[in-house]
Amino acid sequence: MSKIFDTLQPYLDKAMALETARSLFEWDDQTIAPFEAAQYTSKVVGILSDEYMKCLINDDVRKLIKKLKEDKEQGELTDKEKAIIKELDKTYEQLESIPPEEYRKYNELTIVANRAWSKAKKDNNYEHFAPYLKKIIEYKNKFAGYRVKKGQEPYDILLGDFDECFGIKDLDIFFDKIKHEIIPLLHQVSKKIDTIDKNYNLLEYDIDKQREFNKYLSGYLGFDFNRGVIAESAHPFTLNLHNHDVRITNEFNKNNLESAMFSAIHETGHALYEMNIDDSLTQTPVGGGTSMGMHESQSRFFENIIGRSEAFWTPIYSKLVETYPENLKNISLEQFIKGVNKAEPSLIRTEADELSYSLHIIIRYEIEKAIFAGEADVDKLPELWNKKYQEYIGLTPANDAEGILQDIHWSFGEFGYFPSYAIGSAIASQLYAKINDVMSVEDYLKEGNITPIREFLRDSVHKYGATKNTNQILMDVTGEELNVDYYIKYLKDKYEKLYSL
Ligand code: ZN
Description:
Elements: H1 3-31, H2 37-56, H3 59-68, H4 71-74, H5 79-96, H6 100-123, H7 126-147, H8 154-160, H9 168-190, H10 207-221, E1 228-232, E2 238-242, E3 245-250, H11 257-275, H12 292-306, H13 310-313, H14 317-323, H15 325-328, H16 333-340, H17 357-372, H18 381-392, H19 419-438, H20 441-447, H21 451-460, H22 470-478, H23 485-498
Helix pairs in contact: 1-2, 1-3, 6-7, 7-8, 9-17, 9-23, 10-11, 11-12, 12-19, 17-18, 17-19, 19-23
Zinc ion binds next to α11 and α12.
């Protein structure tokens, strides 16, 4: 036991409480707060955020961390405490490298830039957004420059903020392999698009019935309603206060059966991760999922690998048909499974199917990389974007709203975030291969028994929270670090079978 760590504990507890309160307002804002609340509530949120920062970033805490990093003290720490110090050290490195005045100006810029993006997207006018984007990129370059180490590029720093395991060198190899294998596969599939008919998906589906069925689905997968709630918001998301209060949302569309259904499964995957984090870690700086990529791996594992498989639907498809007999009585399970897996080249990332999804990510990755290497002219990004869409997906956006302006991320300065989505899919496939080595996933799914699968993920991934990083978890579970070959094999096997290629 370290006495110095005990001195640190009250600061951590107070910071946690302030952060929990702030998160609760965020949840409230996106779900049930009245329309006019935001302007006034933002004052409360601002004060809570300031207090949180003051509580964590100050001379007392700085001294304690410095002391706790010394060899002598490290010997006294438990693994959990060591992980907490490592996490705090990262936060200090990120925040303290930037002069406060610059950080404040940058934060103000992202608020106006986000509004400019929103208007530019509505008006379909990239030129209106470009000057803001240029300024954001200048700041990001500068901030990354403060932290860049020998042998690193500024973009490595941005990537590292979302996952410390992967930089440009790793991702170049990762994405090159995907590109090489998936683009030809998508071309083959494109020629057979019409062989799958899924018109049933766009019939009318009563929203109350959707709500009820999707709640059933979340529970079926293991969502614990004593420790979680489901609400509605403009875009589905997951938020947790701690491992006994995990919240997900959904958004319903009367003329689309799949949209809310697969969002429900996706967010439940995120929720299971947070619910299964060990009690000893929750409410500490390492009490959440370890990285965006690992989080997305859990949501995508359940959404795509499990949720779009025939075995998963075998015991419950009749219940779905009974919920909407007028629309589904003539749709066989086989046709339904083909429908939910139908691949089709498209322009919008968030609506992309499992096969083409990673190509959307590659396009963003390559553009971001070019921007921070000083190789892309911000004024000409729409041309670059459209060229890559034609090359990789075979389609050219008709305008900037369905092209370069479609994603919100850059307007908030979130560069380096997109790769997490593809990393998540790849991790999911790697874990899936391992689970299949130790149990027959298909047999359990056909029996309607999700528990062994969920428990495997709990014991090998979830319970550790952020005490291990992405590659440490993969190494311990699968015996190797992230290996994209599993993902490519999974996609090839699946789509070659589905389209009889
Ligand atoms: Zn997600």
